[in-house]
Amino acid sequence: QSALTQPPSASGSPGQSVTISCTGTSGDVGAYDYVSWYQQHPGKAPKLIIYEVSKRPSGVPARFSGSKSDSTASLTVSGLQAEDEADYYCSAYAGNSNGVFGGGTKLTVL
Amino acid sequence: QVQLQESGPGLVKPSGTLSLTCAVSGASMSNAGWWSWVRQPPGKGLEWIGEISPTSGTDNYNPSLTSRVSISIDTAKQHLYLKLNSVTAADTAVYYCVRGGWSNFDRWGQGTLVAVSS
Q1: Do residues B2 and B106 lie in contact, with contact meaning Cβ atoms separated by under 8 Å?
Q2: How far apart are CA A99 and CA A41, in angstroms?
Q3: A57 to chain B: which residues are within 8 Å by CB?
Q4: What are the phi and psi torsion angles at B106 (to 5°)?
Q5: What mean pLDDT comes out for the span B55-76?
Q6: Is B60–A38 a contact, with Cβ atoms under 8 angstroms apart?
Q7: How high is the pLDDT of residue B103?
Q8: Cβ within 8 Å, pair A51-B104
Q9: Taking all residues of chain B, what is their mean pLDDT, rounded to a whole number?
Q10: Which residues of chain B make contact with A36, given a CB cutoff of 8 A?
């Protein structure tokens, strides 16, 4: 199973919006609505911020939103804040009790 | 609030067996659909190792690891276990215990670094 494709880096100024893409195939992202996004600060464990394409767990700010079109999922962070600087990973279910993570995107707040 | 704590040797010799335990507190393991292990080599991305159902015992593994890995669970002790055989330097990583499966990995342990070296 090949990793989902994410841009290595993304950036934006405080207050701006930034969108991170996650491209898969018709067998994973395109097939199921089990796409999740994780935020990871340096030296910390990943934290779930979006699941099932666009749902936010309790406590995750509404600034984080997710969407999907065909085989590409997207994470949008609106009103960027300094604490949003982190690595972001997408994941997707690929059937047969298997799935795949993206390679990760380093988000820099300028 | 559920808490997950991984423990085990921080150093394993090549060709040896990596064994980790995850202690879960704050919630019953039986109430989750799946429990998983995910690893992250230093400076690299996340890799799913496998999962187990606390109610049926059904387990599923990453096809690239399935010949070397075993995940087990003891719901009475609130423990999740990982065994990885025939390790090499490529298995050096931070290993995370995670509540959930591919619908969402919603709680992560702090992770434990395991190095494979002689």
Answers
A1: no
A2: 23
A3: 104, 106
A4: -95, -15
A5: 96
A6: no
A7: 87
A8: yes
A9: 97
A10: 103-105
